[in-house]
Write a structure and sequence with these properties.
Elements lengths: L5 H10 L4 H13 L3 H4 L1 H24 L1 H21 L4 H29 L5 H28 L6 H18 L17 H6 L4 H32 L6 H23 L5 H18 L5 H15 L2 H12 L4 H10 L3 H15 L2 H4 L1 H20 L7
Helix pairs in contact: 1-6, 1-7, 1-8, 2-10, 4-5, 4-6, 4-15, 4-16, 5-6, 5-8, 6-7, 7-11, 10-11, 10-13, 10-14, 10-15, 10-16, 10-18, 11-13, 12-13, 12-14, 12-18, 14-15
Length: 387
């Protein structure tokens, strides 16, 4: 592994910080005495940036370079982490900070994947990118453990922002010192734009797959956001300890599932694995409705395993069906990540009116659709979907 890949791996670690938003929802309800629906705006503003900035940032990367965009993303994330350290007297400040962090992570996502190719040896890009996704999972796993640790040490929960700010600053310095020669790929293709991307949605299969990403990310972020409140409401678990660690079980399972998925896909097809994963996810969510604490916690972990590979499976199946449109399809799929901004908010509204458990019907219905999509992809065969 080349030394110059390390700053990029650090950038992927920082990308995982976006999942800290789910951990903060329950704390925001208590800190600011707000409704669950209003607290659900945290993941909304953390992920809506994908819809707003994905394609424009891609254009900026073409014009200014991927390293420039990576540095810009780190600066935006750093600003978002510093704001709550300076002041968090109002809920608006927290929401704005989360929006900055989400915007910065969007920029990092757009630049991070292609720049890994620039720092990888020949033939090593796929392996390095896969490992980078695992590093991102490690970053995601920090929040459910760091927040309780900070609270147990007698510090306020917002101290987590200063810890993350320190990591982002170190990453920024590492990237600034990185010397990299970026190749220019001018192959005559029409540049990706909003118009060309949205035009592909007229094709039914493309529309359904993009909708699948929207619903999947919404279901994942929704569970991540409301697991702590669910465990507290259903089993009276302490929200600062065991309930928050429930999110840790989910995120750890995501990381484990991604490693297992890379092994499983070496001897089975993406379409079959897509079907199996989506059905397992339905089973896991149904298990959360079973009123036994140990069963519920086990199903939280099982849900993470089932969810882990849905995004890359949908992504790869769709791209392989139209490789000549990979740029436009990538833009659409990145924008569809904004589903994580919508579904958690709707879950909060349902939780206010009924219960957190009742809100889990939205992830359940999302995966019913995703399962339909998986079977549809399987039936379409190699003529449309190459594995």
């Amino acid at each position: 592994m080349k030394l110059k890949t390390l700053p990029i791996f650090l950038a992927f670690f920082v990308m995982g910080f976006g999942d800290a938003v789910g951990t903060l929802v329950a704390f925001a309800v208590r800190e600011f005495n707000i409704s669950k629906g209003l607290a659900g705006l945290l993941p909304f503003f953390g992920l809506v940036a994908y819809a707003l900035f994905s394609v424009p940032v891609g254009v900026l990367a073409d014009r200014k370079g991927k390293k420039f965009v990576l540095i810009l993303g780190l600066l935006i994330v750093l600003a978002g982490e510093v704001l709550p350290v300076v002041t968090i007297s109002k809920y608006f400040y927290l929401v704005f900070a989360i929006f900055l962090i989400g915007s910065g992570i969007t920029v990092l996502q757009v630049a991070g994947n292609p720049i890994m190719r620039e720092v990888s040896d020949s033939g090593m890009y796929p392996r390095n990118l896969t490992f980078a996704q695992f590093i991102k999972s490690i970053g995601s796993n920090t929040a459910p453990y760091v927040v309780p640790l900070v609270v147990s040490m007698g510090m306020v929960w917002t101290r987590i922002f200063s810890i993350y700010a320190g990591v982002v600053f170190v990453t920024l310095m590492a990237v600034l010192l990185l010397k990299i020669h970026e190749t220019q790929e001018t192959n005559g293709k029409t540049p990706v734009s909003l118009g060309s991307s949205f035009g592909l949605l007229k094709e039914p299969f493309v529309f359904l797959m993009v909708l699948g990403i929207f619903l999947y990310v919404g279901a994942e972020v929704g569970l991540n956001s409301w697991i702590a409140s669910y465990l507290k409401e259903s089993f009276a678990l302490d929200i600062e300890k065991m309930a928050t660690l429930g999110i840790g079980f989910f995120l750890t399972a995501l990381a484990v599932g991604r490693l297992l998925g890379s092994v499983i896909l070496s001897f089975t097809s993406a379409k079959k694995f897509f079907v199996a994963s989506s059905l397992l996810a339905i089973l896991a969510i149904l298990g959360l409705f079973f009123p036994v604490k140990h069963v519920a916690i086990a199903c939280v972990f099982l849900a993470g395993l089932a969810f882990a590979n849905i995004f890359p499976l949908i992504f790869s199946i769709l791209i392989d069906s139209k490789p000549e449109k990979s740029g436009e399809l990538s833009g659409l799929l990145c924008m569809a990540i904004c589903g994580g901004a919508v579904i958690p908010y709707l879950m909060g509204v349902i939780a206010d009116r009924y219960s957190v458990l009742a809100s889990f019907t939205l992830p359940l219905l999302s995966f019913v659709f995703i399962s339909y999509l998986a079977f549809k992809a399987l039936r379409m065969g190699k003529a449309l979907v190459s594995t």
